[in-house]
Amino acid sequence: MSSAAPALAAVGDALDPALRILTTEGCVQCNKCTFNCPVHRVDVTFSPRKVILQAYLGGGDAVSERDLWACLTCGECQAVCPTEVPYPAFIRAKREQLRPVMDRAAPCKHGGFKEVVARIQARPGLKPDRRAWIGEGLKVADKGEVVYFTGCLPYLDGIFSYCDSASIGRAAIRLMNAAGIVPVVANAERCCGHDSLWNGDTETYRKLAGANAAWIRKTGAKRLVTTCAECYSMLKHEYPKVTGDLGVEVLHFSELLEELVASGKVKLTKPVDLQVTYQDPCRLGRHAKEYDAPRAVLKAIPGVKFVEMDRIRENSMCCGVGAYSTCDAQTKFMQQERLEEAASKAETLVTACPHCRIHFSCYIDGRPVDPLPALKIVDLTVLAAQALE
Amino acid sequence: MSFEPAVAAFCCNWCGYSAADQAGAAKLEYPAGVRIVRLQCTGMVDPYFVLRAFERGYDGVLVVGCHFGSCHYKSGNHQAREQLDRVAPMLQALGIGQQRLLMTAASAAEGPVFAAKATEFVELVKRLGPSPLREVAR
């Protein structure tokens, strides 16, 4: 019987290494994931279940390049999976594994723009100037209790001209200043590495995470706040795996704002007369399990009438693009579906992630003749800042 | 060793490149560090081109198109201007510096103008020093 153990080990080695990420029960092939997958709804040939089966049966390179990059890593499949198979994490491992052998590297749909910005920031010896966008009248510091991690806000306007993304940062600083907080905005900050990690470029991700962890520790701050759902999920859940404890409490801006409003430090008094609905960003919701803080903030803004869409929280539908690696005609169908749902409930769609805002605004901006009702996409932070006197 | 800047020059087929061609035919001199990339029109210049050039270690990026109003494709150079105006603050934020990016114009008949502008830009980059992304010894 002594030969049984090596035989089993050999089977284990033949398995696709990325499958080791799966839970001990593994995939039971029930297909619930497929029926909840937003990609499957617009392209019936795409199925997470099928991809896992191929990986079980075929080993290392059985997953096609198309299936590998069609996944949005939004996590709707994992939310409904009876054995909680971490499909997004599996896809991430797969991308990391296959990236070196693929003909073409990760397909960034903006001609590689996001990737090149991340790679440049991973280089040592740069002296960035990350405060030019802040403008007059807002206070930031080099040292303090609270760090404001701006993420890619200073760069996004370089390419997404239809979305004043820096306004999100200005609104956040204004709200913090109103509460007497002068946040640290560091020139040493680097890209959080979200897109690098999810597109399989782990080398760049590790460099960025290391550089960020170093300056965050040096500030001696107690809390770190970010307005971006992607940065939040990275700093809170992914960084500790590669850099160890950052020594700060990581908060999404909605969490900080909820606290500041509850304690009366920020007074949202100016009425904002809007009927709004809320898009759960996948990175904040399903990835980081924060559903309530943004809703609490929305309810605290006077004049705002908050209506829920039908698919919310764990079942929230993705904005259509994950890590800038997927955007095609199918994406547009997904966005149309979600925006129609939002427009049936409210005139303004609020989101807590600058990237959801960009992807939805891109859809609206790109199709001015589309019969989609006039729907505004607004960031939660910007909306809250409108309620300041 | 003195610092000889490497400059990526994106030139449009109709004006910038023809001007460079004419400068060559007339045996005009401009610094050898100017590496010309011919594009059909400067309108295809993308923020990615600029950032990729810097990532590859170039010290400056020069975009040479037609004069405004005489673009072969009517508005390509205006598009390029728009794109580059957006990428400049990004270069500043990244710590590369927006002075390292310049868009200029030289018509097909302006060989001497091309040579003069290229020389002038290389002199400027020389004063700025090597790009922070340059990997060779400084």
Concise synopsis of the structure shown:
Helix content of chain A is 44%, strand content 7%. Chain A has helices spanning 4-14, 32-36, 38-42, 48-58, 65-70, 76-80, 87-98, 113-121, 153-156, 166-178, 194-198, 202-219, 229-243, 253-262, 292-300, 329-343, 354-366, 380-386, and strands spanning 146-149, 223-226, 249-252, 274-279, 304-306, 348-351, 376-379.
Tally of individual domains of chain B? 1
Strand order of the largest sheet of chain A: 5-4-6-7
User: What is the CATH C level class of the largest domain in chain A, in words?
Assistant: Mainly Alpha
Helix count of chain B? 4
What portion of residues of chain B is helical? Answer: 40-55%
Rounded radius of gyration of chain B (Å): 14 Å
Strand portion of chain A: 5-15%
Average pLDDT number of chain A = 84
Description:
- The complex is a heterodimer of chains A (389) and B (138).
- With 389 residues, chain A is α/β, with parallel strands linked by helices.
- Chain A has three domains: 4-101, Fumarate Reductase Iron-sulfur Protein, Chain B, domain 2, CATH 1.10.1060; 113-260, Glutathione S-transferase Yfyf (Class Pi), Chain A, domain 2, CATH 1.20.1050; 266-386, Rossmann fold, CATH 3.40.50.
- Chain A is 44% helix and 7% strand.
- Chain A has 18 helices and seven strands.
- Chain A has helices spanning 4-14, 32-36, 38-42, 48-58, 65-70, 76-80, 87-98, 113-121, 153-156, 166-178, 194-198, 202-219, 229-243, 253-262, 292-300, 329-343, 354-366, 380-386, and strands spanning 146-149, 223-226, 249-252, 274-279, 304-306, 348-351, 376-379.
- In chain A, the strands form two sheets. Chain A has a four-stranded parallel β-sheet with strand order 5-4-6-7, with helices on both faces.
- The longest helix of chain A is centred in the middle third of the chain and has 18 residues, at 202-219.
- Chain A is globular, with a radius of gyration of 21 Å.
- In chain A, 49% of the residues are buried.
- By secondary structure, chain B is α/β, with parallel strands linked by helices.
- Chain B has a single domain (7-128), classed as 3-Layer(aba) Sandwich (Rossmann fold).
- Chain B is built from four helices and four strands; from the N terminus they run βαβαβαβα.
- Chain B has helices at 16-25, 47-55, 76-94, 111-128, and strands at 7-12, 34-39, 60-65, 101-105.
- A four-stranded parallel β-sheet of chain B has the order 2-1-3-4, sandwiched between helices.
- In chain B, β1, α1 and β2 (34-39) form a beta-alpha-beta unit.
- In chain B, α1 packs across α4.
- The longest helix of chain B is centred in the middle third of the chain and has 19 residues, at 76-94.
- The interface between A and B is medium-sized, with 24 and 18 residues.
